[in-house]
Specification:
27 strands, 17 helices, 3 domains, about 550 residues, binds zinc ion, binds 1-O-phosphono-alpha-D-glucopyranose, alpha/beta, TATA-Binding Protein
């Protein structure tokens, strides 16, 4: 029986760049999930009888929310919902299923790399029919819906058994419980050379992949240890746990320290890698060498043609604005276009749909291609494996040769997390005000060449996105970027991105901190960070 439940708006249900992300306790409040999911459906048209994809990263509250979404979807008239077995689907796997099964859209239950468990975070994200995150006009419509909602529709029915693969009915709707990995693995087989990678492992290549007790465990085990024949134990923390084993499933140098230390240790494997909570991010560390996500994007773009899925070459490269400009040099050498977009994966969607870009990436450990409309952690690792197998060289050799050919973009991101929001906003406002006066002045030893507040004009739909971060360009091609995070759940986070280009191979072996030294000091004084935030040092450096 379908029930109409009277409800009223709950404050703060505004989806950001990566959906609605809050503390678990907030999601557990009465009507919270129902209001939001009904508002998603209220913002859409034409889904009657259509297919929806549903799954999440396995974090606490995932299973309960799957059941709630199913009952609301059934009451709203969806024809079929594809659910990953156990409620598990990585973000890229949802994107893959939406595309392969011509679904109307998908709901992803995840707070990405944020901690899980009862005290941690939860999230709900809606993806559209191209497999990518909902564009702003959809998320704004969802938000508007949450502010006027007065009722939601829900089917009265017992829970669906989501652990057994196969079809069941829920009211008039079909529920299809699918293997979370199968379609995704089949797609990977069309993109990278599985035979070649199999031969690599047979020849003794050693890797460790840290799934961080999050969603990629089943994918990495099935593909690396299963299809590609890597030895058992290659995948670490391969079981998705509701609290991710108490860890922060963020594959950066802080939270994926174990894999990093392994790569730097005496018995380092040839490749160390990790992915995040929902499987869209990646960390690549060679023996003794961490590959920054910006460099990884550039190296993959330069070498993608070595993999069967990209054998015809790539049409263009897209990177988010704060990502280093290493990829720009690859694009220039290949005479292909480079696109600079605002932070957030959704800005790549139009470029990929229009065939303007093939490979894209962000400095925040996201890399992807036109195979999906999400960044894809396991794909990035597989493409690296393909490149390593094809080139017959180590990660470090490939990266060093890349720098020798294109130059090196030293790069670091400094995060000032959970600072006072008013202070952070005031800092950015003060910078913006000074922008017109900065060019031509000196900051320390450096001359400021240009300064602006990044605005993006989408070449496909003609839309403009303003105020995406303050960019300070120096005469020596160094750059400092300031922007506020759009994904935090407490206070504000100021992100400062610092980059310096070095053409001379004799100077490619410096420590990043050493290479960026003067710029780091400048990044603090230029924006008066201590005064506005009360912090002398960033809380995280990646
Ligand atoms: C962060 C990253 C950004 C990424 C987003 C979602 O957003 O910086 O590149 O797209 O998470 O994973 P931010 O917190 O900086 O707004
Ligand atoms: Zn993620």
């Amino acid at each position: 029986m379908i029930r109409e439940i009277a409800t009223r708006p709950i404050a703060g249900q505004r989806p950001g760049t990566s959906g609605l992300r809050k503390k678990v306790a907030e999601f557990q409040a009465p009507h919270y999930v129902e209001n939001f999911v009904q508002s998603i459906f209220d913002s859409l048209e034409g889904f009657a009888g259509q297919t929806l994809v549903l799954g999440g990263d396995g974090r606490y509250f995932n299973r309960e929310t799957v059941q709630t979404v199913l009952r609301i979807a059934a009451a709203n008239g969806f024809g079929r919902v594809l659910v990953g077995q156990g409620g598990i689907l990585s973000t890229p796997a949802v994107s893959c299923l939406i595309r392969k099964r011509h679904a109307f859209g998908g709901i992803i239950l995840s707070a990405s790399h944020n901690p899980g468990g009862p005290e941690g975070d939860f999230g709900i994200k809606y993806n559209v029919s191209n497999g990518g995150p909902a564009p702003e006009k959809v998320t704004e419509a969802i938000y508007a819906g949450t502010r006027r909602i007065a009722r939601y529709r829900i089917l009265d029915a017992p829970p669906v058994d989501i652990d057994r693969i196969g079809d069941v009915r829920l009211g008039n709707m079909a529920v299809e419980i699918v293997d979370p990995v199968a379609e995704y693995r089949a797609l990977m087989e069309t993109l990278v050379d599985f035979d070649r990678i199999r031969a690599l492992f047979r020849a003794g290549f050693r890797m460790r992949f840290d799934a961080m007790s999050a969603v990629t465990g089943p994918y990495a085990k099935a593909i690396l240890e299963g299809a590609l024949g890597a030895p058992a134990g290659t995948v670490m923390h391969g079981e998705p746990l509701p609290d991710f084993g108490g860890h922060h499933p963020d594959p950066n140098l802080v939270h994926a320290r174990q894999i990093y230390d392994l790569a730097m240790g005496p018995d380092a494997p040839d490749l160390c890698a990790a992915s995040d909570g929902d499987g869209d991010r990646n960390l690549i560390v060679g023996r003794g060498l961490f590959v920054t996500p910006s460099d990884s994007l550039a190296v993959l773009a330069a070498n993608a043609h070595l993999a069967p899925g990209y054998a015809q070459g790539i049409a263009g490269i897209a990177r988010s604005m704060p990502t280093s400009r290493a990829a720009d040099r690859v694009a220039a050498a290949k005479r292909i276009a480079i696109y600079e977009t605002p932070t957030g994966w959704k800005y790549f969607g139009n470029l990929l749909d229009a065939g303007l870009a093939t490979i894209c990436g962000e400095e925040s450990a996201g890399t992807g291609s036109n195979h999906l409309r999400e960044k894809d952690g396991v794909w990035a690792v597989l493409l690296w494996l393909n490149v390593l197998a094809a080139r017959g060289a180590s990660v470090a050799e490939i990266v060093r040769r890349h720098w020798a050919e294109y130059g090196r973009n030293y790069y670091a991101r400094h995060d000032y997390e959970e600072v006072d929001a008013d202070g952070a906003n005031a800092l950015v406002a003060a910078l913006r005000e000074r922008l017109p006066k900065l060019p031509g002045t000196r900051a320390g030893a450096l001359a400021i060449a240009e300064a602006d507040d990044f605005a993006y004009h989408d070449p496909v739909d003609g839309s403009d996105t303003l105020h995406q971060g303050v960019r300070i360009h120096f005469a020596d091609h160094s750059r400092i970027v300031y922007r506020l995070s759009g994904t935090g759940t407490a206070g504000a986070t100021l992100r400062v991105y610092i980059e310096r280009f070095e053409a001379d191979p004799a100077r490619h072996g410096l420590e990043t901190g050493q290479a960026l030294g003067d710029l780091i000091a400048l990044s603090r004084s230029l924006a008066d960070i201590p005064r506005f935030t009360g912090r002398a040092e960033p809380s995280t450096v990646t």
